[in-house]
Design a protein that fits this description.
The chain has one domain (about 15-120). The chain is about 50% helix and about 20% strand. It is built from 3 helices and 3 strands, in the order ααβββα. It has helices at about 10-60, 65-75, 125-130, and strands spanning about 80-85, 90-95, 105-115. It has a 3-stranded antiparallel β-sheet, with helices on one face. It is rod-shaped, with a radius of gyration of 27 Å.
Length: about 130
Amino acid sequence: MTRRRTDDDGSATIHAATIVFLMTMLGVVSLQVAALARVQHTVTAAADLAALAAAEAAAAGGDGCSTAREVARRNHATMTACRLDEAAATLEVSGTTAEMWGRTWTITRTARAAPSDYRPPVREWWRART
């Protein structure tokens, strides 16, 4: 008895190899998305912590921006902008991912913090018109 060859011989191997390749690519992309999400969370937390530290330092009479810069650095981020309005701090913090697919991604977050008893100054807008 001889076995008859058909045109479908070996097609299961091609399908299996394709499925393995697609599953591998899905895994790689999932890991990259998870790494990007981790950097986003890290930068967001660093911005929040740095803003709180800046507001606390400014309320105590210290240099809020240098304190915020140090807190951001310790949380693996870079402070790119700092503005203090009395004891209220507004910061911009950024972080960069490792190289993914030949490119790095920069994540930037803004955070604002002030002491709980902070009241923004009232601007007398009617006096500016006269």
